[in-house]
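Model it.
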Amino acid sequence: MRHSTLVERYLKTHKYETFNNLKGWRMMLTQQKNAQAEIELKFKQYRQLSKQIEEDSKARNRHYEETKKMLEQNKLKNDRKAN
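Modeled.
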């Protein structure tokens, strides 16, 4: 296992010795049971939820713009009546 030059210098100045303490290892493979299917289902639900939120946000924005326009028109009418 290699160290950076700073680590090597620190180890030498503090009189530490290094050795490779990593032993050989093997990767074990296991079969996927239902975990992947559950994850895919969860993310599918997340995508549907995000689409619903986006549609709701757009609807609220349209409603806001319509209300804003109506209030501006009412204000103009009231200003004309006042003058």
